[in-house]
Amino acid sequence: MKKLTTLLAATALASMMGSAAWSKTLVYCSEGSPEGFDPGMYTAGTTFDASSRTVYSRLVEFKHGGTEIEPGLAESWTVSDDGTVYTFKLRPGVKFQTTDFFTPTRELNADDVIFSFERQYKEDNKWNKYVAGASWEYFAGMGFPELIKSIEKVDDLTVKFTLNRPEAPFLANLGMDFASIVSKEYADKLEADGKMELMNQQPLGTGPFTFVAYQPDAAIRYKANPDYYAGKQKIDDLVFAITTDAAVRAQKLKAGECHIMPYPNAADVEGLKADPNLTVMEQAGLNVSYLAYNTLVAPFDKVEVRKALNMAVNKQAIVDAVFQGAATVAKNPIPPTMWSYNDAIEDDKYDPEAAKKMLADAGVSGLKMKIWAMPVARPYMLNARRAAELMQADLAKVGVEVEIVSYEWAEYLKLSSDKARDGAVILGWTGDNGDPDNFMDTLLGCDAVGGNNRAQWCNQEFDDLMTKAKVTSDVAERTKYYEEAQVIFKREAPWNTLDHSLVVVPMSKKVSGFMMDPLGIHRFDGVDIAE
Predict the structure, then answer these.
(1) Up-side HSE of residue 174: CA atoms within 13 Å toward CB?
(2) Could you read off the pLDDT of 241-276 as tens digits, one per residue?
(3) Residue 515 burial (CB count, 10 A)
(4) Is residue 162 predicted with pLDDT exceeding 50?
(5) Which one, of 220, 28, 170, lies nearest residue 472 by Cα?
(6) What's this model's pTM, rounded to 2 decimal places?
(7) pLDDT mean over 47-68
(8) What is residue 19's predicted lDDT score, i.e. its pLDDT?
(9) CA-CA distance, 445 to 54, in Å (whole number)?
């Protein structure tokens, strides 16, 4: 069966490349299938790589390889003295992509910007629930429905956002994937044709690459957008060869079947470095991996139980086994490379005997629990199944019986958000904008319960500090609030913080112009490949 699946995938890839055989084609061995192609509805980097960073653009963008904001679809902007009104001047002459399924008749204007955001929070907007179960998780989890008072069209090329309060990370947030700008004209056509679901299957934006076709779980094909406002890309065709097994990705890279791969197995890195045809890039990841307890479900609603489980797990053993030294044990919900990291925090010590006593004192015995293990490799957790097995063995030593469960990736992300979820879930995060708010409030704020807050943890003291940190632009003052919030997080233990990893990207030496991104995305604008 495995051979047949591999053959079908290879056939699909060859078929999709078709006419691209004689063009300059870059093949990226991606680690998984996207959940969909509308970036507003999702949070996974796999989906963003395949949608927002290829097909779409945003009002502002992060400079390639960094976290500094630069003009995107907005060529300039002004901010009112009280920090509540942002006025954006749109870049004139920006064209939406022309595809086999849609030909635009006008250029980007303010209507597209307003539509792109209003559909995410106005429940009377027909596009708010155009896909069953659409939750606009980022938009809601970051508090945007309460933050945005209005979005107004000043003229065709001017848009004004009025906020209910100052928001220090607002501009950086607009550079994130959920803030990608979609075509209202395309949406109107799909609505008129009764085919609204195609917005999530046949994406159309203003980005560097135009979507061509998708063979589910096999390959995605794009072509360079000839009308891209920043200029046509050097490569003509971009192909995502979906390859979920890291060892197979490495084999394909060595065989020249793909040119770039993400997330190699730690055990394969030295062999990849030794290959004279390959280059291996490395950098400290702006990331964290964690085990999130469901704090709404007994006995995980008790902090002493969560603390005891944390003390029962040998995190260093997980780092050694899964990353072979290419990661460090995590104690905080933000990485040590991020400003406001509180290094004075003391981690929960690995102490099985103390953990056993703490569980007994809490009246907990014969505990059975589930640990959810991700089905895909992510930069912050290369092998969740192996990590879960190690935790399973550790917890057995303190009398806790663990069942390991998993689901297909899109289902895993959806089900793990449920407030009634059974068990603790392994997940993680790579920063989207270089701001601590993107970790702490996005993943742990009260607004994110039922969404990105997989611990379903709402602590008012913590949340108040998040609000204070947002409304001031003074970095020293914001640092003080985030440092204090990390103390509360560690005291309450909604997660067991697992690791911060090194990120490794191997590629063919034929590739030039590829830059590692601290935000954990893979961008192909500016990339070239030698013939």
Answers:
(1) 23
(2) 999 999 999 999 999 999 999 999 999 999 999 999
(3) 15
(4) yes
(5) 170
(6) 0.83
(7) 94
(8) 44
(9) 30
What's the Cα-to-Cα distance from 400 to each of 63, 349, 356, 394, rounded to whole Å?
A: 47, 18, 9, 9
Q: Is the pLDDT of residue 135 over 50?
A: yes
CA dist 140 and 120 (Å) reads 8
328 secondary structure, DSSP code:
E
Return the ∠ at Cα 380 (arms to 379 and 384), rounded to 5°: 100
299 preceded by a cis bond (ω within 30 of 0): yes
What is the pLDDT, as a whole number, of residue 13? 53
- In 315-439, which ranges are E strands? 327-329, 368-372, 401-405, 424-430
3-class SS string, 460-483: HHHHHHHHHHHHCCCHHHHHHHHH
The angle that helices 184-193 and 110-118 make with each other, rounded to 10 degrees, is 60
Quick check: 205 and 51 in contact, CB under 8 A? no
SS3 497: strand
Chain segment 139-160, per-residue pLDDT in tens? 987 789 999 999 999 999 999 9
- Average pLDDT on 399-425 reads 95
CA separation for the pair 298, 451 (Å, rounded): 20
The residue to which tokens 């030295």 are assigned: 270
Q: First and final CA of the chain: distance in angstroms? A: 35
pLDDT digits (tens, 9 = 90+) for 212-243: 999 999 999 999 999 999 999 999 999 999 99
8 Å CB contact between 74 and 89: yes
Indicate the helix (H) or strand (E) that contains 357. Answer: helix 352-361
Q: Residue 17 has what pLDDT?
A: 47
Alpha-carbon span 121 to 127, nearest angstrom: 10
For the chain, helix, strand, coil in percent to 5 are: 35, 20, 45
How many other CB atoms are found less than 10 A from the CB of residue 96? 26
Q: Where are the extended beta strands (E) located within 225-353? A: 237-241, 278-284, 287-292, 327-329
The partner residues of 427 in beta bridges, in order of sequence, read 290
